[in-house]
Amino acid sequence: MKLILFDFDGVLADTLGDLLQFGQEACDELGVKHTATQHDLNSLEIMSFATYGRQLEVPENLVAEFVSRCMAKFSQMPNSPNIFDGMTRVVEQLSARHAIGVITGNSTLTVENFLIENGIRNCVSLIFALDQPGSKIEKIVRAKNQLSMDIGDVYYVGDSVSDIHAAREASVKSIAVSWGHQSLARLVDAKPDYVVHSPQELMEIF
After folding, report:
1. What whole-number distance in Å separates Cα of residue 153 and Cα of residue 146?
2. Residue 193 DSSP code
3. Does residue 95 carry a pLDDT above 90?
4. 77 CB-contact burial (10 Å; exposed 0-12 / middle 13-18 / buried 19+)
5. Structural domains of the chain ordered from first start
6. 58: which residues sit within 8 A by CB, 6+ positions away?
7. Closest by Cα among 44, 50, 48 to 65
8. What is the pLDDT of residue 146?
9. Is the pTM of this model over 0.90?
């Protein structure tokens, strides 16, 4: 049995439109004159709401407020974000033979609601989100220790350069997905252990 850890935004959940909308709304509310585009997300070295805010030219003294407003907008969504086509079945199939976790820069509430709405909450053994202490690296290590998996049997599935770096720093294998928030070229340059172009290709790895 392996431990497969998923990022949330851009891997399980199609939140690109939400991130652009909420980032723009937060900028407008804070008086920041910047138009949010996908280029802003693709440019990030570290994928987080704080670095996203800085990329959108939010002044440092307002970054925490930008993060808080974006998180509130996600939690107040009337419906969960859409799940990427094919991902529900992949998570169900993988969870039958492996342990599944979610490590994300989004909130626990957003992830919980999404998993419940898509009928896969029982497939996920743990969730480490933004509202819990520690870096993404620390959370990957904590997940490994909590589920007592060998280092060689742990994988982190992400859509950003920082996800690949976090997996490497935590001594686990990285799987980059090409359907997320950062470009394939940037992901390949970061040298992940695997690159996949569809959820079904994850099944081929395992």
Report:
1. 14
2. S
3. yes
4. middle
5. 3-14+80-205 (3.40.50.1000), 16-75 (no CATH)
6. 26, 27, 30, 32, 34, 66
7. 50
8. 86
9. no
